[in-house]
TrEMBL record:
<keyword id="KW-0092">Biotin</keyword>
<comment type="function">
    <text>This protein is a component of the acetyl coenzyme A carboxylase complex; first, biotin carboxylase catalyzes the carboxylation of the carrier protein and then the transcarboxylase transfers the carboxyl group to form malonyl-CoA.</text>
</comment>
<protein>
    <recommendedName>
        <fullName>Biotin carboxyl carrier protein of acetyl-CoA carboxylase</fullName>
    </recommendedName>
</protein>
<dbReference type="Pfam" id="PF00364">
    <property type="entry name" value="Biotin_lipoyl"/>
</dbReference>
<dbReference type="InterPro" id="IPR011053">
    <property type="entry name" value="Single_hybrid_motif"/>
</dbReference>
<dbReference type="GO" id="GO:0009317">
    <property type="term" value="C:acetyl-CoA carboxylase complex"/>
</dbReference>
<dbReference type="GO" id="GO:0003989">
    <property type="term" value="F:acetyl-CoA carboxylase activity"/>
</dbReference>
<dbReference type="InterPro" id="IPR001882">
    <property type="entry name" value="Biotin_BS"/>
</dbReference>
<feature type="domain" description="Lipoyl-binding">
    <location>
        <begin position="70"/>
        <end position="146"/>
    </location>
</feature>
<comment type="pathway">
    <text>Lipid metabolism; fatty acid biosynthesis.</text>
</comment>
<dbReference type="InterPro" id="IPR001249">
    <property type="entry name" value="AcCoA_biotinCC"/>
</dbReference>
<keyword id="KW-0443">Lipid metabolism</keyword>
<keyword id="KW-0444">Lipid biosynthesis</keyword>
<dbReference type="GO" id="GO:0006633">
    <property type="term" value="P:fatty acid biosynthetic process"/>
</dbReference>
<dbReference type="InterPro" id="IPR050709">
    <property type="entry name" value="Biotin_Carboxyl_Carrier/Decarb"/>
</dbReference>
<keyword id="KW-0275">Fatty acid biosynthesis</keyword>
<dbReference type="InterPro" id="IPR000089">
    <property type="entry name" value="Biotin_lipoyl"/>
</dbReference>
Length: 146
């Protein structure tokens, strides 16, 4: 196995959620491990909550709650995004569809492996990426669920 293939495999593991990869070619076996880093603690934005008194404050708080309830679905890995289960079939979801937590939204193909991207929460699809059959990078916005 040549060095460029090994580097490609290392890059793939670094950009994906894969924690271990073993590849054998001819008489050479390469094992790549990745230990995910610890996530930073999430601080609550509503630590000091007070009740709004003026209509402007109530409106501002309502729009903040709407923004807070929107979850952005991002690409977990680099690969080719497929919005439908197979060519010529209807997409998994459309804008306005109501989805359940865990429902498949997309498939990302990386190194001939098809990875499902599931809804992190139940809600309505508010926005979708235009990419279909093209490459997406790790962290690219795929959908917004409210």
């Amino acid at each position: 196995m040549d060095l460029s293939k090994i580097k490609t495999l290392i890059d793939f593991v670094g950009r994906s959620n894969v924690t271990e990869l073993t590849v054998t070619e001819k008489d050479v076996t390469v094992r790549i491990f990745c230990t995910p880093g610890k996530a930073a603690p999430i601080a609550s934005a509503k630590a000091l909550e007070r009740s709004p008194t003026s209509p402007a404050e109530r409106s501002r708080d309502a729009s903040a709650d709407t923004q807070a309830s929107i979850v952005t679905v991002k690409a977990p890995i680099f690969g080719v995004l497929h919005r439908a289960p197979a060519p010529g079939q209807a997409p998994f979801v459309k804008i306005g569809d109501v989805v359940e937590e865990g429902q498949t939204l997309f498939i990302i193909e990386a190194m001939k492996v098809f990875n499902k991207v599931a809804a992190p929460q139940a809600g309505r699809i508010m926005r979708l990426t235009e990419v279909d059959g093209g490459e997406v990078e790790t962290g690219d916005m795929l959908a917004e669920i409210a």
